[in-house]
């Protein structure tokens, strides 16, 4: 016959392991989403700034050419292309949106950490998981390769080198531009 107190202890340990793993998964999702949206925020912020700089430079150059009575209208073409790209893609709005999402995820991380590593309940885990889904409902489509880059950064920060996936330099350069499919992201070790 088995000892009922020993069975109860094993059930308690099993329940604690389950809750701890669930807390880790929720916190990991929040941290990953924060990192992802901060990267997107920086990317679109830089695009917006460079767009403005180049628009000013090219616009000034086109204006100088017009003032000098040079009748070559193609000098203004790069200026027009940049001005249109800024209007169409609205880089500053995209940067702001990703900033808001990152802030929401970071606030959730803070709420999870405020409860502590042992004092949380299953109801709190469910509430945090639901909050993640609420925030995610307002997300634009994700770029899988950029998510993988963020996962690699978190794995390195945690000392989990075995979880790092090799990403070629050219794919990393394109991570903000092309939505690579998950099957295209493989370890080449």
Break the fold down into its secondary structure elements and pairings.
Blueprint: H1 4-67, H2 77-89, H3 91-115, H4 122-136, H5 144-157, H6 169-174
Please, could you describe this protein's structure?
The protein is mainly alpha-helical. The chain has 2 domains: 11-140, no CATH class; 141-189, no CATH class. The chain contains 6 helices and no strands. The longest helix is centred in the N-terminal third of the chain and has 64 residues, at 4-67.
Quickly describe the structure.
The chain has 6 helices and no strands. The protein is mostly helical and 189 residues long.
Order of helices and strands: HHHHHH
Shape: elongated
Mean pLDDT: 86
Number of helices: 6
**Total DSSP E strands:** 0
Strand content: under 5%
Largest sheet: none
Query: What is the count of structural domains?
Result: 2
Q: What distance separates the N and C termini?
A: 51 Å
Helix content: over 70%
Radius of gyration: 24 Å
Poorly predicted tracts of residues? none
List the main descriptive attributes of the protein structure presented here.
single chain; 189 residues; mainly alpha; 2 domains; elongated
């Amino acid at each position: 016959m088995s000892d009922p107190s020993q069975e109860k202890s094993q059930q308690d340990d099993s329940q604690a392991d389950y809750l701890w793993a669930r807390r880790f998964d929720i916190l990991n999702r929040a941290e990953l989403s924060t990192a992802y949206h901060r990267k997107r925020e920086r990317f679109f912020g830089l695009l917006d700034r460079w767009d403005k700089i180049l628009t000013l430079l090219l616009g000034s150059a086109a204006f100088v050419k017009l003032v000098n009575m040079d009748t070559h209208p193609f000098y203004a073409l790069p200026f027009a292309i940049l001005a249109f790209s800024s209007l169409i893609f609205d880089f500053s709005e995209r940067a702001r949106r990703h900033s808001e999402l990152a802030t929401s995820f970071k606030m959730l991380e803070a709420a999870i950490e405020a409860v502590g590593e042992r004092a949380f309940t299953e109801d709190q885990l469910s509430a945090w998981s639901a909050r993640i889904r609420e925030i995610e409902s307002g997300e634009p489509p994700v770029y899988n390769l950029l998510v993988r880059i963020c996962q690699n950064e978190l794995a390195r920060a945690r000392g989990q080198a075995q979880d790092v996936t090799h990403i070629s330099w050219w794919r990393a350069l394109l991570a903000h531009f092309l939505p690579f499919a998950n099957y295209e992201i493989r370890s080449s070790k």
